Each structure stands twice: as C-alpha cells, then as structure tokens.
C-alpha cells in the first residue's frame, strides 16, 4: 500500500498505472528509472482530453538523444513529474523552452515521483555523462516528504537516514528488489512501519486524507517533521559539495504549492508555505542558490488563464513562467 502522503495529484497519476507500469523499470541505484527507447501514447484525462506522446531516449529519459561533443557542457534539469512534463508535450516543458531560447544543451532528467534523495543519487551517478555546467533542481516544496517514503511507484527506493551521531547513512536498493513480488511484500511492510510511526506522532492520514489540511502544513505538527528536515539538510549538503567539487553551478527552482491556488488557509495555524520556508532556510544556511516561483506563478494565474492543471501540475503556461524566470536568474549570474 502506497503511503497516503503521496500528493493528491501524484496518487492519481501512479494508481492509474499509466506511468509506472508502462514507462519505468527497476534501477539498482535510484530504485526506478525510465525504460530506454520506448514510445507510448498516454491518455491522462486529469490534464487533457488529448493523448500525449511520451518517448524515451537511450538513457531512459523523456528527452531527445544526447551525445555531447568534446568538452561540451550542458544544463541538467532534474525533478519530479513537473520536470518530466505531466500533461504537456515534451517541447512544452521548461527545459525544452530553455534549450530553444538559450541555444544551450539542456538535458531533462525528470521522472514522476522522484524524491530529493533519488535526485541526489541521480546527480552523483547519472548526470556525469552530460558534463553539466549548471544543474537545476525543480522541487515542489511539499514533496520533500518523499525522503521518508521507502516504497514509491511500486518500487523500493534507496534509503537515507541519520545515525545517532547525526551522520548520513545510505541503504542501497537490494538486488532482490528487481522482482515485483518481493517489492510488494517489503513495500507493504515499509508502508505499515511509516504509518505506525506517524500514528505514534499523532498523525493519522490513511483515512479521510484532506490535502488542504495535510499535517506538513500544521504548525502544531512541526516537531514531528524535525527529523525530516534534518535529514533533508544532510542530503542537500551532499548535492552542494558534489557540485562544488566538480565546478558545477547549482540552483533550485521551488514551485508554487497546489493548495495556494485553491483557497485561503482555514486557520492561522495552517500555513501552506511552511515546507517552502523551512526548505529555503536550509538552502540559505548551506549557501545554495534558489529561485522561488510562488509569486510569479500566482501573479500569472487566473481562472481564465491558469498556470496549472486542476491537479496542480504546471501546464504549458506555467512551464513558460518557469523557463523565463530560470533563464533570467542564470543569465544574471553569468551562467549562460
């Protein structure tokens, strides 16, 4: 059973089986990754009444083939389903718009439901091939919760944790996780263990989950997530240090929270910006650049001309906003 903490829109995305069962396969490092050299026509009615073509290259990414020449460098964009392009054609994504506008080699390594832990490992292991000059990490602030999930998309994940001294440890994906039956058995155990830990912390979200009052937005539940943010900081430091050691420029693109487009918070004790503020505080503390898309996205959004689909994924207009803001920020820093 997949944890109810998977967001409302991602839950629909995954449980429909339209992505995980047709586009992904076991990956010994990340847990799951795109199957290479496939093409599918997907109908995702929560986004569009029209089928979208999803085509993977040799690397299992929804992108054009990439073979850099000589010492060529690239801009690597990585994140979850917003970067992957839920509901839009490949050429409508912010990564592809950046490629067209800048003339640079822009690589898209986005995959649905990737957590920042998997993003970290993908940067360490899969981005080398593209000799990145810049890495853009698109992070939906709510989705930091995924580092507590051991089982996503029907696949087991690598697991980061903190030992008693606060040092970061990594438990790799076991070899037997390539077999579906073992994944399901161990995944059910991990989900139960996580839900039990939440229950002990006074959090019950298995039944009657309401995304507008998700516990991660509740001030009186902040203490329960202290471990999450401590773990997150250690993972982000690994990414930062890797980029510093390899002369790679790093920037986070923080998307607007779905709930902020819906209605006002029901209470002063419910803050939809809470995960963003805690994430930005960590990035400030460790000296990592970021651009906050909240105000630009909310300012460009209207009922007549939205920047998101009904489920929260950024639409074609939202991708254009992302691309414009990112291009301006990278140009301002002299990275383009």
From TrEMBL:
InterPro entries: SGNH_hydro_sf. This is SGNH hydrolase-type esterase domain-containing protein. The lineage of its organism: Bacteria, Pseudomonadati, Pseudomonadota, Alphaproteobacteria, Rhodospirillales.
């Amino acid at each position: 059973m997949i944890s109810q903490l998977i967001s409302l829109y991602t839950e629909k995305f995954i449980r429909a089986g339209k992505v995980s069962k047709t586009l992904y396969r076991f990956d010994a490092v990340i847990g799951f990754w795109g199957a290479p050299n496939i093409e599918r026509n997907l109908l995702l009615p929560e986004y569009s009444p029209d089928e979208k073509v999803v085509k993977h290259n040799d690397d299992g990414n929804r992108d054009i083939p990439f073979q850099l020449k000589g010492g060529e460098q690239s801009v690597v964009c990585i994140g979850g389903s917003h970067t992957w392009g839920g509901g839009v054609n490949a050429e409508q994504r912010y990564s592809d718009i950046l490629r067209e506008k800048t003339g640079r080699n822009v690589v898209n390594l986005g995959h649905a439901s990737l957590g920042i832990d998997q993003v970290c490992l993908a940067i360490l292991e899969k981005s080398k091939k593209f000799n990145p000059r810049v890495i853009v990490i698109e992070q939906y602030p709510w989705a930091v919760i995924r580092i507590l999930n051991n089982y996503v998309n029907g696949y087991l994940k690598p697991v980061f944790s903190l030992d008693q001294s606060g040092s970061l440890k990594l438990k790799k994906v076991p070899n037997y996780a390539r077999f579906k039956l073992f994944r399901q058995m161990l995944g059910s155990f991990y989900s139960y263990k996580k839900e039990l830990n939440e229950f002990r912390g006074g959090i019950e979200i298995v039944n009657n989950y309401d995304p507008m009052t998700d516990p991660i937005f509740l001030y009186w539940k902040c203490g329960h997530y202290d471990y999450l943010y401590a773990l997150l900081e250690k993972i982000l430091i690994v990414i930062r240090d890797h980029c510093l050691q390899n002369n790679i420029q790093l920037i986070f693109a923080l998307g607007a929270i779905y709930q902020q487009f819906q209605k006002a918070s029901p209470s002063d004790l419910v803050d939809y910006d809470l995960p963003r503020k805690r994430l930005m505080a960590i990035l400030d503390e460790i000296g990592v650049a970021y651009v906050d898309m909240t105000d630009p996205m909310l300012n460009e959004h209207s009922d007549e001309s939205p920047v998101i689909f009904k489920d929260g994924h950024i639409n074609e207009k939202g991708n254009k906003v992302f691309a414009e803001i990112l291009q301006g920020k990278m140009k301002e820093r002299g990275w383009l």
